[in-house]
């Protein structure tokens, strides 16, 4: 077993705690301290790394484990001894208890030790290696593999003689010079307590541990200021913990004894100070291995390198996992199951119509488009241009860049686009306006680029954008992401790069919301209006939807078409479908007029609520209310003909009278509007005549609302007031002008009220007869109402409204 001796300095007789040992090739050593004349010993286990290290022995702090630190080369051992001698005079603990915690201990005699201390270092690794001696002054070079030590050594030699070292060390040099000056003054006057206090204050700023070392040397005088610096150093270095009582060890508080010693020190009585650590069981020794500087720097470099590598690995893993989660979420939002992620083509690839991959019956042509002949003719021209461009270009004509389909909902704009896709014979790409935008900024612009990029490859072709108002609305400052998408669309349609052979077809029912830059010529050259069909168009649409359904002999399509003014193509398709469902529910094999009328009434008046229980009084009041509307409509010039009257609750109404124009008109005359006002007042006046003013109900609220809106429309927008004049009034009104408008509106309503009151008094018998019939049958059509009210109807053949006018009582349900 390789051995090396540990011999204490002769100067450490009062506090034997430092020895110097030089060993090579050892990994784990055991230090055996033999203390005292009686031969009692304490054993402390510790680990050491490296070669030629010095063992530094310090007093133990509470129950801390023995540590290992770097400490340079053998040269300068005497200076190191001087620096650590005084550290033992302030440590208080129990070596016996520490020995139990570390695995081996023997009791120490409580008496002070006089003499020398010797020790042995035994190699415990089981396979001792040969020991080689080092020359005392020989400098050891770092190993070639110790890169950190080599770099530290090179940097140290460069910094010693460089100007950079001088500049960077200037503040520290000033502090060091000041400390050297104070130290020399304090050493020259060891009994000057004031100089000692000034030195301790400066030492505390730089090295609190040195304050403890110097204060514990009894040859220097101290005063209250020095004691304060000593106490501050105890707290700063955590040495005060050694004086705190520990019940688990049976150790009492040492604070009182510490204060007593400090008082005696200030009074000049230093002979009664506590015995130095290492001489009693309460004050054991603390052994610390101090590593060399080069080894410390290299280890710190390795630790920082490992920390950096671990951080990069963790960050990379988090980045990959986060990116995978985002890709999965984006694919889920977009409805794409592939793992292509946000950069995948599936999210941005345009949809291409291929009629070869869909059933033949689902392929639409212009033969399937009815009721909009003018719009169909314009689009047929574009299809012909695509099929035979030479026919148009021989005279210098150009293919239009864009066609915008405008019209109310349900008029067939999307159906026209499907017909073009089936007729054109060129690639057809389509997108909905709402499909461009997603939660991620920039996705819309990228999808626009992808759409036109695919179209350019297959030109000539058609690009259809349905509901373009979702992406082409007027640009607003707070909608930056939408502006990017619209700007990209504008550039693709008519930008610096020409898109020859691409026709952009778009549809919207809100043309007023589109950006002006989008609707200008050069982008959308043509605006095609697709309006609601007229009577002839409705007949064509009904024949188209009824051609593959069995019909009863009583069905007259032309009569049905004339009775559905204002219906769009979608409304007529829904009407036919509801009639077919009703026929199936009734158990018949043909669609008859009864089912078609049922479907029409359901669309016009709402669903019947036969299960709703009404009192007899409520039914009677509703019957007279609706009879008032019907009698006024039947006897007023300019009023629309009555379609049906009912007191059966439908939708949100308890009853209603439905009027339908007998032909399509594009405007309303003043006489028609005044007749409309009279019909609205008929229900309220009938209630007053039959039940009295105190029994008038809230059922006339909707009638008054419609009448007031119509009267204001006549005064402010149509110029039908002699007092206000032929002006169109916007929202910016003066106070006097607003008062005159309000006065005219009230005048029109009061005049209508008086006319209706006079008429119903003349036709009071008809009012009672019709109300009685409604109470008996609940629903009456136009023929039955005419039979009850008489053969003569005072109605002039005037212009009628194209829209359906429904005057209803919306009594709360």
Mean pLDDT: 72
Strand content: 5-15%
Number of strands: 18
Helix content: 40-55%
Report, as a whole number of angstroms, the end-to-end distance.
108 Å
- Could you give the order of strands across the largest sheet? 9-11-12-13-10-14
The major β-sheet equals:
6 strands, mixed
Radius of gyration, in angstroms, nearest whole number: 53 Å
Going by helix content, strand content and strand pairing, the class is alpha/beta
What best-fitting shape do the alpha-carbon axes yield?
A: elongated
Low-confidence stretches: 1-140, 269-275, 334-345, 793-813
Tally the helices: what do you get? 27
How would you characterize the overall build of this protein?
The structure is a single chain. The chain is α/β, with parallel strands linked by helices and 813 residues long. A 6-stranded mixed sheet has the order 9-11-12-13-10-14, with helices on both faces. It has a 5-stranded antiparallel sheet with strand order 2-1-7-3-4. Strands 17-15-16-18 form a 4-stranded antiparallel sheet. Helix 14 links the parallel strand 11 (428-432) and strand 12 (461-466). Helix 18 crosses helix 20 (569-586) and helix 24 packs across helix 25. The radius of gyration is 53 Å and the shape is elongated. The model is unreliable at 1-140, 269-275, 334-345 and 793-813 (pLDDT under 50).
